[in-house]
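Narrative summary of target 7.
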Amino acid sequence: MPLLPLRARLKTAAPLLAPFSIIPSVELVELVALAGYDGIILDLEHGAHGSEALGPLILAAMARGIYPLVRVRSSEPTEIGAALDAGAAGVIVPQIGSLTEAERAVRAARFAPDGNRGANSFVRGADYSGRAEWFTEANRDVAVLLMVEGAGGVAALPEILQLPTLDGIFLGPLDLSHALGVPGEMGHPEVVATIEQVIDACKTAGVTTGIFAGTSEAARRWIGRGVTLVGAGVDTALVLRGLKAAVGELRG
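Modeled conformation, tokenized:
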């Protein structure tokens, strides 16, 4: 069964599980798919990926039937365009702290008349086709989510949610805990209350919500609150946990 375009998939509200990946490995992408996840978030912000590594990783995800998302390094338009040209189903843009930054990021992910993404239909994202129709199709199918991780993003949220082609808000609880003065305490009442405030605002605006969840308990909690896209851990931690469990069994 072919995957729904990511924009359409996010609108179904069915939970979508996708770990962050900071290990640039085709085999790891395949293992994530074989384990049963719905997607993978290729993390350029914190990972060891160069832009040249994206193509094979995206192809591996598509071949195994999961969504390849890319967390770009910044809201710089060339970063966003390059990830989408490489074939990403969607982008997650970090550190959005104002309406101006949000609008810039969303417009960078859309072709005219909806935005100002650089136009080239001979790239992987267009199957190298050169088809003029692809620009409309990409605007219809590609998802763009903005990360709210600090006080500026939270304060600007009501205006950000009015952007017409925004697909979702992605919450970063760890950065948010630092911004709220309780670094590392992702379960702190103030952090939780802020997250719930953002989720409720997104629901009211009809905008998808995503969040990083470092544990299965956190993931279940936020799915229960209506979050659609769950950044379900990080590949390094998941691999380490599995290896430790295997060693424990062997030595036990």
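The radius of gyration is 18 Å.
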